[in-house]
Specification:
280 residues; 9 strands; elongated
Length: 280
């Protein structure tokens, strides 16, 4: 005796489970890839060559057929590609945008033909993955551009401070500890930067009859959100009295509390001497 059982529904369920498991594995591969891409790009210390070279090994692992997947990344005037990259009929491509400007392209190519899916032999999710990777490379390029601009501006500022002989200072308003540049130290009679500098030490250099005026000027500027511009005399470390000009301004947090007071200082003794000579 034979017993026949209809297992159609069982087979459908098995097939559905297989498809679901396959899709889950592919999505996990993609998520892992994106995590690695972010780690490589944003922990690279702005090293474009190292970062993009490492991506060539990571990206293929997120595709269905990593053994035949090759990558080509073009960013500005640089090209990074797997040693066996070849343009074929089985590829994906997407632009890399940085600050809304196209600065490169990332391309995927299969070295062998595979069955047709949503986009040639690729799933639509793989195109989405490539688009996301391109976006992250674009953000990476934006960070590099901003970093390079900052470095250029810092060099220009350093040059400007050097030729104008300005001392720069910054006070943390919570701790009252301060930082300053070498020119600031020289103005106050120090050969090099002190390991410690604070608002209290600064005020200690103001000659006694002008100290209250300087203190009240700082407090008024902070309380009224105004820029402070004052001239006063200091007693340098070598006991020489000099005239200085100070410009300062406060920065505030979201609750309008002062967090920093920063600005510049310049020795104006020679100017004051000329001014006095003219008056005489």
């Amino acid at each position: 005796m034979f017993v026949l059982t209809d297992i159609t529904q069982l087979k459908k369920t098995e097939n559905l489970l297989e498809v679901t498991a396959f899709n889950l594995r592919e999505r996990m591969k993609e998520l892992n890839c994106l995590q690695l891409v972010s780690n490589i790009l944003f922990r690279s210390g702005y090293d474009v060559k190292t970062a993009l070279s490492q991506l060539l090994d990571v990206i293929p692992q997120a595709f269905q057929f990593p053994d035949i997947t090759t990558v080509n990344i073009i960013l500005r005037d640089q090209i990074f590609q797997n040693y066996n990259f070849t343009e074929t009929s089985w590829g994906l491509s997407t632009p890399i945008l940085s600050n809304s400007i196209e600065v490169g392209r990332i391309e995927i190519a299969y070295l062998e033909k595979r069955p047709e899916l949503s986009i040639g032999p690729f799933m639509s999710e793989e195109q989405d993955l490539l688009n996301t990777i391109a976006q992250r490379i674009g953000k990476f390029d934006e960070l590099i551009t901003a970093h390079e601009t900052l470095q250029k501006n810092e060099k220009r500022l350093a040059f400007t401070l050097e030729i104008t002989r300005l001392g720069v200072w910054e006070v943390d308003w919570f701790t009252k500890n301060a930082t300053r540049n070498a020119r600031h130290a020289q103005i106050f009679g120090y050969d090099d930067l002190l390991s410690e500098w604070s608002l209290e030490i600064f005020l200690g250099h103001i000659i006694s009859e002008e100290r209250e005026y300087v203190q009240s000027s700082i407090q008024y500027a902070i309380e009224h959100h105004q820029k402070m511009q004052i001239n006063c005399r200091i007693l340098r470390k070598d006991n020489v009295i000099r005239w200085i000009a100070i410009i300062g301004e406060a920065l505030y947090d979201e609750s309008d509390k002062p967090i920093k007071f920063l600005g510049v200082v310049q020795d104006i003794t020679e100017f004051k001497e000329v001014e006095e000579a003219i008056k005489a």
